[in-house]
Known about the structure:
The structure holds 2 protein chains of 2 kinds. Chain A is an alpha+beta fold. Chain A contains 22 helices and 10 strands. Chain A folds into 3 domains: 1-130; 134-286, Helix Hairpins, CATH 1.10.287; 296-446, Jelly Rolls (Sandwich). Chain A has helices at 2-6, 12-37, 46-63, 78-87, 90-97, 99-102, 117-130, 135-163, 171-174, 182-197, 210-261, 266-283, 288-293, 297-307, 309-314, 316-319, 323-332, 374-377, 387-392, 413-422, 425-435, 438-446, and strands at residues 68-70, 73-75, 334-338, 343-345, 353-359, 362-365, 378-379, 384-385, 399-402, 406-412. The longest helix of chain A has 52 residues, at 210-261. Chain A is elongated and about 105 Å long. The mean pLDDT of chain A is 86. Chain B is α/β, with parallel strands linked by helices. In chain B, strand 3, helix 2 and strand 4 (75-78) form a beta-alpha-beta unit. Classes of the chains: A alpha+beta, B alpha/beta.
Amino acid sequence: MLFRSLLRESSPPRIGWDALQVLSGLTTGFVLPFALLAPHDHGQHHGFWITLAVIGILDAMVQSGTPYEHRGEIQKDPRQILRHYLKTWLTVDVVANLAFFFVPLSPSATWLQLLRCSKVFRVLSNWENRQVLNSLLLRISRYSLGLLLLTNWISCIWLWIGLNGEGPDSWIERSALSDQSYSRQYLMAVYWSVTTLASVGYGDITPKTNPEIITAIIVMALGVILFAFAIGNVVAFVSQLDDGKSEYRMQQAGIRRYLAFNGVSSETLSRLRQFSDFLWSQSRGSSPDEILSKLPATIRTEIISEMLQGSVSTVPLFSNSPASLRNRLLMLLRPEFFPPGSIILSQDEPGDEIVFITHGRARLVSEKEEEVSDSDRYFEQGDYFGDLSFFLKEHRNSSAVAETYVEAFLLNRSLFNNLIKQDPRLRTIIQTMASGQSERNQNLLLAGIIL
Amino acid sequence: MDIKASHTGNCLIITISGELDTTTSPELEAILNNESQSNPQNYIFGLSEMDYISSVGLRVFLAYLKKVKASGGRMILAGLNEEVQEVFDMAGFASLFEIHSTLAEAQSAAGL
């Protein structure tokens, strides 16, 4: 059961498992070079590295059973999955996690474990594609971790050169660090690589021997490339962050200038701004309708149904309907937003619409509103109104006004007539709902209120 | 609109034909006020000939329902046509009233 859920990349156990691989890769990338270069650390902590190798092998097993996506299709055939893994990362994963077996052949084989770091970037990139977390955050994490790992490896190479240099010529001897602790020497190596990569170059630790000079040249060149790369990415991140919002602000400013020029009062403009900001906060400038309209009807219904899951459970019209009818209602009913103070249903108009509130609070506005209690006067999430005038086929003598931002579904008469014809179950569902609202309707009608 | 009222035992039976709307509802209200002076316990409304009911007509029924219920009596509606029945069903009033399909059924339910 657990293994099966591990094979689904979006399942929480799998995300946890992948997070463990990230941790394992990072530990290897940061600690392994430091531990291997330590003069008195040979052969220590073997148990720890074997544990990471076992976790890595288990992960290879999980990977070899995980379906993958190819041109938008999920490939589930076990042989295809294995072949795909074989072509991509299997060799790297096997070598990284079975590095211990190669140690008798060459002690340097233990360094092969560093290949495990590739897993960090594979997981983060996969999470970014699947949008497991904020994709911008994941991208920043990926670049930052890459930079940190690179800095650590450069530091370790620099440290290795210093430790294995020729007597007084090594940078460790020249900087009077030979008597210092290993941690201090490592710290100074990190300090040198960061100052060189960042093009600061204080000049307190300088290269002299050939290996040191070659390393310094490579690190300086790398620093320039990384600097340009980092600047480019930061600019891209910032512009991406604010892209939609600045476009929205410019558009709003243009509309406001036009309306103000045409004599619209500042109070109305302020209300417009509030409402536009509310809509922006809901959709972030994207236009889901446009995207959804291009999808096949079945997927669209499924998506809308999932998007409105919360509304479905609170509005009896949906929660009491069988799935097929509910999907049809969700597709056909008109969703609307109403800012505070706006009229949802207006008096003196024919009762041709019923309003089902999914979020927010609306209030009855009538000359006779004092004659009914608060509970009859306010409509909240799950309530509906407009039914009295709708079924009595009369004009409303009262209005309903949004107290807060109200999200609602509107059912008009022609749609109602069509739906009832197509699915007579709707009649029974409305009857059941109506019996729950009989007392409110009785009180309203007795007070002479028709909404 | 035509309204007929008769008393059987402690029951007031009223039959309505035509449309019960803003113009005709006061007439029903006046008849009810007059006939209820003898304090009938139960009220039966034969509505098989009633073609239409407006909000004002409904209000008369709802006001009397309250009154009758408060005095421990019963208010029974009988023979609602399809359209009127739909108004009662969809606006939630069907659950407030005792409704029978014929006047005879309503009378027998009232023990007449």
